[in-house]
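Hey, resending since the last one bounced:
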Amino acid sequence: MDALIFLGTGDAMGVPRVYCSCEVCEEARTTGMNRRLRSSVLVQGQEEGDSFLIDCGPDWRSQMEAIGQRATARMLVTHAHFDHIGGLPEWADECRWRQAKGELYAPQEVLDQIQRQFPWIHRQLQMIPADAGIELGGWNITTWKVTHGANGYAFAYRLEKPGFRWVYCSDSIGLNEEEKRPLHGLNLLVLGTSFFHETAPYPTRSVYDMKEAAELLQEVKPLRTVYTHMSHDIDLNRSYPLPPQVTLAVAGMKVELV
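The structure tokens again:
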């Protein structure tokens, strides 16, 4: 059966932050429960060649080593911020080494941003627009733009097979009605929530906190939700008042997509 494996569950800075000595960062340096690499997931298919990654942050190499995987053939990217594309040069080098072109899927405007940032990368990666929908590993995949607050916008992905529908939405906040429409009728929602309750002024923020996410879930009603993209505000050793059927992601966690 298909499964979703969390490779990284951290926000843009990861945990621990190098400059920080808060309780969560210190715990992450020792026992490591709260150690979080930048957010990425592996969609693991039933057959060889059906698997693909979503996002390729600067921790991609460490994430691949952690699961013992030496090659990646296909990848979706949600947006062109560094914590989601910083590992692309290393992936491109892996493709060069095995003399194969990787398949990089994203909306055209994201591909254009990546090409501007890494002008040479098309030599190793085939840039494939996802705007009109794509099919990977038997999943019918659609994408749409979501509000990313002070950081502009990102894209979310909705993946469907007969009997199962899920969404990966790592970077969003304050979604409007049109942006929320694809979140209805889901078996699983993977949602970015950087804080439990973020106190920074709202105009400066870019990702839901868990209190705001609870209001969103009450509206769109997924059967199950996993929170990811978590900062050093979140302590996995604590118990949070979360809605039913909500889980906090940890690296290596496997969710069956059935």
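The CA atoms of residues 57 and 84 lie 4 Å apart.

Sorry for the duplicate.
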